[in-house]
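Same chain as my last thread, 80 residues:
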Amino acid sequence: MSDYVYNIISYGAIGVISMIFGGICINLVLDKEQREKYNCFKTYIMFFIIGIIIHMITQFLNLDQLYCDKKCQMRLANIN
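reply #2:
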């Protein structure tokens, strides 16, 4: 599978995950009247797009790789 297809799949997966977490937060935090106001299709699309944008920014800045490198260095330091 090419990197382009892999990136599109990962962006979509992160978007869906952020959409699910956003929906859960709406249902847990807001009371019933506000929940009915914000529990619409536009809100879920917004969560989806925000998830994709955040994932693109972290990929562009290599924050995910930086985090993984630090974790690996800490584990290697603990082994020695």
